[in-house]
Amino acid sequence: MLKHPPVVKETDLPLLVDLYELAMAQAYWSEGMNENGVFSLFFRTLPENRNFVLACGQQHVAHIIESLAFTDEHIKRLESLGRFQPRFLDWLREFRFSGSVHAIAEGTPVFPQEPLLEVEGPVAEVQLLESLVMNYVHLESVLASKAVRLIFAAQGRPVVDFGMRRTHGMDAAHRGVRAYRFAGLAGTSNVLAGLDFNMPVYGTMAHSFVQACTGEMEAFRTYARLYPGTTLLVDTYDTRSAVARIIDWLQEEPEVRIGGIRLDSGDLASDAAECRRMLDEAGLGDVKIMASGGLDEYKIATLVSDNAPIDGFGVGTAIGASNDEPALELAFKLTEYADLPRMKNSPGKQSFPGRKQVYRRLDPNGRLAQDVVAGRDEVFDGEPLLKPVMKRGLIIEGAIPTLDSQVDDAKRALDALPSQFRSLEPAYENPVVISDFLRALQRDTLAKVRG
Amino acid sequence: MLKHPPVVKETDLPLLVDLYELAMAQAYWSEGMNENGVFSLFFRTLPENRNFVLACGQQHVAHIIESLAFTDEHIKRLESLGRFQPRFLDWLREFRFSGSVHAIAEGTPVFPQEPLLEVEGPVAEVQLLESLVMNYVHLESVLASKAVRLIFAAQGRPVVDFGMRRTHGMDAAHRGVRAYRFAGLAGTSNVLAGLDFNMPVYGTMAHSFVQACTGEMEAFRTYARLYPGTTLLVDTYDTRSAVARIIDWLQEEPEVRIGGIRLDSGDLASDAAECRRMLDEAGLGDVKIMASGGLDEYKIATLVSDNAPIDGFGVGTAIGASNDEPALELAFKLTEYADLPRMKNSPGKQSFPGRKQVYRRLDPNGRLAQDVVAGRDEVFDGEPLLKPVMKRGLIIEGAIPTLDSQVDDAKRALDALPSQFRSLEPAYENPVVISDFLRALQRDTLAKVRG
């Protein structure tokens, strides 16, 4: 037997914490530092090949925050580390988050320096949430921000997630699919995630089935009988001869219904063109051509701009691991404590102090014109993006919409992005303006910490 | 309430399957194709900046395989997809893996085309394991293969995992730490994973604690009192003035014990040199200097070769997300069915058919000289790497060593790697030889499938 389960148990999430958070919590506790802290979650910068982050997870993480509690077993395990005082462990045993959370909508495109989440509460309580909140939001935001690029590249042709084998672990395989919904993917091969996150589940055959059968045609006939309208994988031995044989068969047996063929290797553009020509000449114009095998947004964009007759794309590695940018510079920083603004002055890492709001302004055509990052109590034109999600430790009734409705909102927010941000090329443009108040607050706070 | 748990439940792992596996299983079942299939797990190729894969997970996954079973609830959910026949769902309800597994030791360096795992059993049973096995082994192998490069770069100075906030989800944050043990990391910041995988847990303070205190020195004094021998984070406002103040304080209060300081930003080499000089001049030669902040193997190698006086490294993004190569070309392929060799002929994806063994030969100095990938029944000099792990669906008693003992074995296997494979530069060398038998088998099988 394994001494631990193969996946993290929900009940063990409180221990999924970086040790320094517990060390700091004990220090706050021992010093009687129990005033409110405000922590802000934001992306510091973006890599050149991301024009925005599609932020996901920042509302859902409230469910974890709300239920986080240490069990006696957890306390015993922490005791074994020999660093915690019995009375602090008692405090930990009683811990329930008692503060408030503001967050932007799931699936909102955000830019550097814009808070996606602000947590306020007794500083030790909020400190304990740091790594869990970051890990939770980072995963989905990274995967959604990659996946949406494939959607842009595909220009309306459906993109389906085949990435489970390449995602980093099972939590990522599962929750990634929720991220892909915000990005606009059409479906997933992943059964559990499709069922849990209400996304169509797709999948027909791998090469192994073709190989195990006595011949390729036997495999195809079996599938056509079991799954009318199925998609046949045609590249196991030789794509064009497979398609030629399928055509002969369908002409001999016109009652057989095949929905499509899938190309998974080789020169997709020329194979697709040739297969399309063969199928069309045989009067099989309704048999679709799907493509997969090492696709990313650039390859899809080329296929689309070359008018390759491909009706849909299956993508694995690129979206499963966000292979070009698997990590983004997400930060969770103390911006206020005991009603005073706080910031650090580390080179390249200065942030803006104080609790904040983001106002998103649209132009008359409904396109994003400017975001203003302001102090929480400032008022600007535009829609305030940060909305209350938790109060006194509890999720506010009705504050978190259903997933389907969140996905609809995300689509609208994506549609409002001007074309330069929807391009695969760097936008070299930043729609974010920092308010004068925040700039002055940063200047004053900096002067104080330097003094 | 969330309709699903925030992390995948162990009991839901059977549904973490790609739909095509279930579709194929039903097809095998419906066609009475219940002969044994052999599936082989291997890396197709390696990116230029990986000289080998440190394979992890291929033995541990047997625990998942052994206990995999569909519940009535799972069957009901599958039924809702409308693609499965009631009698196939009955078969699925009775499913327990009944086959055998061969695997190489956890933490073995492997090269392209070397099987890490071979699963044999009724073909439908093995097919159902595909994505789960791949996901499980891919995660740890990707993270360990990156982490070991940092160990090579650090040349004996300890490297500690700070990556939880950047790993893709919680399963990766947790199981990644087991991978880091095989790679040789000295510790982790992650409490749950450290406790579960018996790795020292490290962590003292973040900038937030310094910011929340009235002044930096208040933060330092609190920590020195609560945690004698602690490491102080000195870059919140200005590294060198912080160190100057620490020196004044320690000279005034010589009874205070500080173990080290940590630099987390700025020019680590010059700050470390200057801090070391200041500390040494003050007679504080035993105060160590730790560095963190955007480190990867190349930065560490430069710091080490420049003799930067840094005693240990904390690494986040690089190892948490394996940021340069977050995905590797892992494949799980049918190589035999009904005692006949099987292979596909897709461009660039031809594999070797048949069940296999890998013989690792060492030179007289105990260094890896050559690996022979051979048929399972061939005999060559060297150590056979694939060993039986499961038989008739059950883990063989004693076949999977304890984690600590596996880690010791992994260290020996890494130590046996010649220097070109331990370099950060591409080795441009492949120690793998394919046996004549396998080459002939490939040729014959290819002729058959083409014919």
Description:
Two copies of one chain form a homodimer. By secondary structure, chain A is α/β, with parallel strands linked by helices. Chain A folds into two domains: 10-128 and 336-450, nicotinate phosphoribosyltransferase (Alpha-Beta Barrel); 149-320, Aldolase class I (TIM Barrel). In chain A, 39% of the residues lie in helices and 19% in strands. Chain A contains 17 helices and 19 strands. In chain A, the strands form four sheets. Chain A has a seven-stranded antiparallel beta sheet. The first copy, chain A, has a six-stranded parallel beta sheet with strand order 7-6-11-10-9-8. In chain A, a hairpin with a 5-residue loop joins strand 14 and strand 15. In chain A, helix 6 packs across helix 7. The longest helix of chain A has 25 residues, at 130-154. Chain A is elongated, with a radius of gyration of 26 Å. The model of chain A has no long low-confidence stretch (mean pLDDT 96). The interface between A and B is large, with 118 and 118 residues. Chains A, B: Residues 159-335 form the Nicotinate/nicotinamide phosphoribosyltransferase domain. Chains A, B: It catalyses: 5-phospho-alpha-D-ribose 1-diphosphate + nicotinate + ATP + H2O = nicotinate beta-D-ribonucleotide + ADP + phosphate + diphosphate. Chains A, B: Belongs to the NAPRTase family.
